[in-house]
## 1
Amino acid sequence: MISSKSNPRPFPVKTIPGQVSSRPGTRGNLPSLRRCQVVTPYPVVSAAWRLCTKGRFKPHTVLDLGAGDGRFALYGKYGSYLGYELDPKVRTLTLPRNAKIRCRDALEAKGEFELAIGNPPFMRVQDLDSLWRDRARRLIKQEAGVDPGPLGNLACYFLWFATLRTSADGRVCMVLPSDWIQKAATRALRSYILKHKWKVTLFELPSTVDFDIGKRANAGITLIEKNESCSTVSLVKLRADLRPRKGGGSRRLISTRGHSPRSDHLYAFRGLSPGSRNWFVLTEAERIEARIPLDAVWPAVGTLRPLPNTFTTLTRAAFTARYVRAGLRCWLLRTDSPGLDSAVRAWLDSVPKSIQENSTCGARAVWYDYTVPIPGKVLYSSAYSSSRGLKVVSNPSGVVHLGTVHAIHIGTPRQSPSRLVNYLKSWNFARGSVPWVGGMRRIEVGQMNSILSAYTESPRSAGR
């Protein structure tokens, strides 16, 4: 049963009065605490216990940050289990006598435990309450001597505190997105773990595992073994029965020690996030109906899915055939020009208040005024299928890239976009990346810059 001596502290959820809560990750509506909780399937709970107690490891004290209904207390052998769950509306399961859950903020957890296990809530950094985040950063800096930075999501903060609340020879086993090992926002956490030479293993869950919100992006089990001295990070695939694949072994990930800084002449950069693609990126039919002229929009793509893998160049003809005529969102409003087109102004006047005040638009001095990046010479999809490889095309038409479509800036005539495209298509990106969602994988900007750094040293990079 959940016990509480007093009312819990405010939720770590950013709230705007009058807005409707929705699923985690939406930009138009802010997530509620309940929707940020991802119920863990019982087979995954069992697998987490099995993986973290290998080698006859039997924890006497167990901590669960974000305990939910307490299902992690139903498995494994331990002396005592203490869970922290902030939501008083969660109905707790019947727990063993040596297990209890406190209705308190995870930041209030004290003491030292032999094992930290669980499935922390997931919330994007944009939706975190700033006061909660600042308090979490102060605690981490006081205890670890490291500033985690302001860009981590909620699950990453929970992973930080799991490492701080476990003993010197303890273990951390958490179900959370595996891309923390590669994202630039978690560089401080990775450096902290590698400094202590703790062994890190990422267990990749099969795509057949369903969470309560469907297949969870980057679903995996992270195991940190403080009693094992190791400076590498391994990725191990699990079979359908959630046991490690035989003979599959483990493999080290690309660029786990940090991301390469970008050079001045050749670098990757992220796609623009205008704030709502449904309102800022129009289809051809919407543009015509709103009477917005072509000189008041930019050609833009938020996906390369319409392009076959054999494509190497996004020509104007290909853009027209596969995006414009196909009815896809492909016209980005020009809102940063000195004088807004009257039709664009009329369109912006119809945008709902919830969009104007979302985390992206609300952070701007003028909610609709975003700066469009200079189109890259090469475009690639940062999310890709491991079976089909990375989609990458040259961009002679100057199409703007959005969201998961990233771009590569080429600042010298010596570099040939077509040669770079061929070079990237020859790379086996799947060998050192983490799972994303729906059988897809993802390459981070810093990782791409590492690859581009190697490309500049390759004879194939010369424009001969």
## 2
Amino acid sequence: MIIIVSAICVVVVALIIGLSLLTTSKGYAYKHTVDPHPDDSPSQETVNEEHREEEKN
């Protein structure tokens, strides 16, 4: 009886460790993205001014 319970415990522990490793691996493989900060991107006014300058040329 002890051998059967021990075998079940080993299987459960192995399953938990396997799932933990799988979850951790997927978490590290996920590509996180961050939206650009509004101050880093050109404003609409700057884009419009550049467009006007291109039309003049």
